[in-house]
Fold this sequence. Notes:
- By secondary structure, this protein is mainly alpha-helical.
- It has one domain.
- The chain is built from 15 helices and no strands.
- It is globular, with a radius of gyration of 20 Å.
- The chain starts with a helix and ends with a helix.
Amino acid sequence: MNQPLARSVHSEPAPARPAGNLRAHLAMLLFILVISTTFPVGEAISPALDPRALTFLRFLLATFVFAGIVAARGEWRMPSPAQAARATWVGSLLAFYFVAMFEGLRYTTAINTGALFALVPAMTAAIAWLLLRQTMTRLQLACLAIAGLGALVVLYGDNIAALLNLSLGYGERMFLLGCVAFAAYSPFVRKLHRSEPLMLFTLWVLMGGAAMLFLFGLPAILSADWAKVPWTVYGGIVYLAVLPTALTFYLAKYATVRLPSGQVMAYTYLLPAFVVMEKMVIGDGTPSLTVFAGVAITALATFILQWSTRGSAKGQRLSSVAK
């Protein structure tokens, strides 16, 4: 889960720390790499279980992971009813995203979902404006448009008729709904998170999401033949519960206090490229030239944001020295 990244997208630029910048950039590259693996892994394991049962098990395991971390830090406490309600709402958004992702991956590819995920920053910007009246720079808006163009090229290639009709398959439509929920996650965290330690609030979010999944997914959970689920599927669920949850929390937190928000946001657009490379590494075929073209267009947004933000940060440092 990439809560720290999502929260940083619309925040003020972080103070420049040149000594730690390289490590921060490496942390964000590892962050996006780990997040990108959720799509091929999800594509591999989604047919084995109902998405609600699969997501419930992931949330349950992630809750235990975070509970151990919070207890070790001495931050555990039970939420008040108001805190529980806020965390449950945020957790429900996250739970819906993962259910939609696993459901969508039953009918579409990891590459298509990875391309659609590049639209999340644009959705987040729209929801943040409606909910918090937060705005973006013209350059950020331009990069959102570039990323959107790249996603369309990946999805439609040379199928002009489908592009003009914006025709999406069931899997893409389902995942797109999940992306809307995920895009709403960041603004609602900013609006509903109070003075609680972020790690503790994240634990409450996981607990609330698991509770809602249990409530609405109980028939699927009870009807699942858990004994016949392949061990590789359980391995995939454990992987998703641990690395893309706990590790990415620390990676994004490390980077967001050392890099300007524009540079952090820029790494999101590399995700489709990572997904394509991972699919090739595991021997799942070579994508078409149009897919490569779309991925390249999306990645272009990363380099534009990195270049422009780096120049801005350098100017701010020179200005500070002059003063």
